[in-house]
From TrEMBL:
Belongs to the MoeA family. One of its GO terms (cellular component) is cytosol. This is Molybdopterin molybdenumtransferase. One of its GO terms (biological process) is Mo-molybdopterin cofactor biosynthetic process. It comes from Roseomonas genomospecies 6. Residues 193-330 form the MoaB/Mog domain. Keywords: Magnesium, Metal-binding, Molybdenum, Molybdenum cofactor biosynthesis, Transferase.
Amino acid sequence: MDCFAGPAPTAPLPLDEALARVQRTYGAVTEPEEVPLRAALGRILAEPVTATVNVPPVAVSAMDGWGFRMAGNDPAGDHLRLSVVGRVPAGTVFPGTVGPGEAVRIFTGAPIPVGVDTVAMQEDCRAEDGSKGGTVLVPATLERGANIRDAGEDMTAGSVVLTPGLRLRAQEIGLAAAVGRSSLSVRKRLRVVLFSTGDELREPGTDKPDGTIYDANRYTLAAQLDALGAEVRDLGILPDKPDVTRAALADAAATADLVVTSGGASVGEEDHVKAVVGELGSVDLWKLALKPGKPLALGRIGTTPFLGLPGNPVSAMVTFMLVGRPLVLRLSGAESAPTPRCLVVAGFEFRKKPGRREFLRARLATGPDGRPVAHKFPSDSSGVLTSMVEADGLVDMPADATTIREGDMVEFLPFTGLFA
């Protein structure tokens, strides 16, 4: 009997097609809320931010130095000798006008006085007497307008400076503050229910009878979800019992924006998750043409999105990085962004059969010519979690490729971009 609604693909799906389905099928499911700037780090911006002021509001000095009017002065060799008529610290306004042959001592961020069209860096000048009535020598070769930041040079009033879908970093928060915002409208945190399945699993810190293992997947996955800003509810370990799995999935879907499981999505007699999801909703994607991580299920429990990850620890982590991370960001309302990657030199030899895309765990070292070199972890087993600790990222080997030779240029996905 067909245990799930709708046709499921029988052949493993290429990763790029699976990611395209995620983009086509899923959108933001979280509502906006207003939070203070100090609470906005890592959140997804829900509404555009428009500058209400120019930044800077007026023309200001770009550095500490001397402000003067370039036009109308006669140079004495390489310098101009100017009379000092005042001092302009940041946050003050010079009350008068600076005329030809005059200069003011000015500091970074201070408003440019009327009459000043150029600022000379203090290290290029020589003050013969810094007080009013003294003189200063400034370079005569500066271009007019040097070292002055025009009003609105950074942002102009009325312009959109931040767009919805941005995952807010320190720089976006600082920019919002610069235009006077004390709070931002962001998407509520994605509510994710997470659990593992398997009679062989035990909770860390408890007794572990022969034939059992400690459950690492829930902890790695919860950490990955936390890094993406999700609100995680951990249901623990479920036994390999269809009725228990069915009840847990139905309950989870009623209160979650996304249900994530580890294990139970394969084809073994004790793997019930995929079948139960089909009964409660639909399995829209199953099996990727990918190593590690072939048994991956994507679908819905009722209307709640569902992600079923493999039970092997490396497979669970890698498939979450490649598919789960884009899905979580999509549901959270984040704008689409390509997976960070770079080209590095292969410091290893590797061969495989064509037809399945492989992601090889590797660490980076600096080669003799200064270029980064990827060194593959010795084991390709999806059960060797130490490989993820010792690696810096993944080498992406295309499905149709069969050989990597030492010295080849290969695409590398650093963990620093996949864990956040």
